[in-house]
Amino acid sequence: MGVWGRCVAFLLTAGLFVGVAGDVRAQPSEGGAAAAESLFQEARKLMDAKRFAEACPKLAASHKLAPAVGTLLNLADCYERNGQLASAWVRFHEAIALAQRLGRPDREKTATDRADKLEPRLIKLTIKGRESGLEVKLDGNVLDAAALGTPVPVDPGKHTIDASAKGKKPFNTVIDVTDRARTPSVDIPSLEMENEAKGTSPPPAESPRPSDDGKRAGSTQRILGIAGMGLGGAGVILGAVFGLRTSSKWSEAKDQHCTGTQTGIECDRTGVELATDAKNAGTISTISFIAGGVFLAGGAVLFLTAPSGPKKRDATVGLGFGLGSVSLGGTF
After folding, report:
1. 8 Å CB contact between 18 and 58
2. What is residue 104's predicted lDDT score, i.e. its pLDDT?
């Protein structure tokens, strides 16, 4: 059976469209035949009044009670005039198949001509799904796997699509088909696993255990603080040394190589050199004192604000100075 054959077979059994028939009535009960005829006649009157939405269900009911090719053809015509082209197309194909079995070429030709003229006007819905073991339903009717990816005629209006697979979360959607888009399509996404669908939460993350990161960060900061204070102490000592050198050079120049006059102080060549040395040493001393103070203060701040890790310990720091040296000690 070809793809279109499968589509027709699906539509004939889908429940969207009802009935099989013959020109020769099946053998309904007497009451059933009377009811079928009454429904048929009433439906014809409604069709003459262009009340097709009311007429079609009555023709379908008449055909169900007493199947006949003539009723099928009228039902297909009613569907077509009501805008339900897919339903009409299927009914004409039902009539073709039954007319062939009954040897009624006239009925077969009528149904074939009507179906052929109707086919270019059909809206064809394509449902795509690549999931393994996927079961797809269109308006509650299971689609043959061969119909997936194949355009299937549908009537205008809303259609429900349901997809399921073993161990997977079901998927469903509703598509509103209109004449404006004659080739609509629906892609069924990969279905989620059931445990994912139920919102199974991943195992709780282990609460972070006290790590050495804080200790390492604190240790690094303390080392930087100690280094800063060491540089600061060295700067202070250097400033003191050059301060003493300034005082010594100036005293030597003033006492031995310079004399006071009415216009100021006059120095010999050696005195000028000693005074220049004293001035330079004073500049270095000043810079050293300032830099040393900055490093001392910054180092102390770094050391005292360093994180101590999970367990806090009291920190003490001592700074000692000796002749030409600086020492720093502490516990932490």
Report:
1. no
2. 92
| Cα pseudo-dihedral 120, 122, 127, 128, rounded to 10 | 10
How far lies 87's CA from each of 26, 90, 96, 184, 314, in Å? 23, 5, 14, 17, 89
Task: Give the tokens for residue 130.
Answer: 């690549």
- State the total domains in the chain: 3
Greatest alpha-carbon pair distance for the chain in Å reads 155
Whether 142 and 103 map to the same domain: the answer is no
Q: Where are the beta strands (DSSP E) in the chain?
A: 123-129, 135-138, 141-142, 152-154, 157-164, 171-177, 185-188, 258-261, 264-267, 316-322, 325-331
Q: Whose structure tokens read 């297909």?
A: 76
Token pair for 14 = 């889908």
pLDDT for 155 equals: 92
Q: What is the CATH number of the domain that holds 153?
A: 2.60.40.1120
User: Do 9 and 113 fall within a single domain?
Assistant: yes
Please tell me the pTM assigned to this model: 0.51
Tell me what pLDDT residue 283 has.
87
CATH number at residue 41: 1.25.40.10
Distance, in Å, from the CA atom of 22 to the CA atom of 96, rounded to the nearest integer, reads: 10
Domain that holds residue 45: 3-121
Low-confidence stretches of the chain (pLDDT < 50) are: 1-26, 197, 311-319, 321-328, 332
Give domain status of residue 174, yes or no: yes
CB 131 within 8 A of CB 191: yes
